Amino acid sequence: MDHAEITRILTLPYSEQLLARDIARMAYVALDGSPRNVPMGFVWNGSEIVVCTTTNAPKLRHLRANPQVALTIDTEVFPPKILLIRGRAALEVVDGIPEEYLSTNNVYSMTPEQRAEWEAEVHSLYKQMVRIRIVPTWVKLIDFETTLPTAVEQLAAERDAREQP
After folding, report:
1. C-alpha atoms less than 13 angstroms from C-alpha of 39 in its C-beta half-sphere
2. What gap in Å lies between CA 128 and CA 46, rounded to an integer?
3. For residue 160, is pLDDT > 70?
4. Prediction pTM value
5. 4 vs 103, more confident
6. How far is CA 50 from CA 19, 29, 75, 124, 152, in A?
7. Phi, psi of 158 (to 5 degrees)
């Protein structure tokens, strides 16, 4: 998929709404070949998805061996809106707490007091973290208004062909 098409899809209104959400599910392949899928807080910076994790997270050794990932960001209402993203994870060890990590957790309903306690706990635990940057190489928006899952699109086309005189 070319960069212009990726940009076009990611700047659609529904895509922008989904990219402003707080949680994405990130899928990757473990060293034993089995799939893994974990919810991650994320930030969209306009060109890449950024997630952060602990330096001892098991997913890191898997991502170093195979950096290919797939992300799903979706809604819980009908009709659902679903943004599918594929890309390659680039890992970077960061001293202290990455700003992206702190901002991904801004969306939770914390009082200022809870926020201060949470940040103090984070700073006491993490001397370093790993920033994971994912540049989209393929995207699809499924909004059930203008786009459908590929298999459903195929069924609809077959139905339309059957119904034509």
Report:
1. 5
2. 25
3. yes
4. 0.91
5. 4
6. 11, 19, 20, 22, 31
7. -65, -45
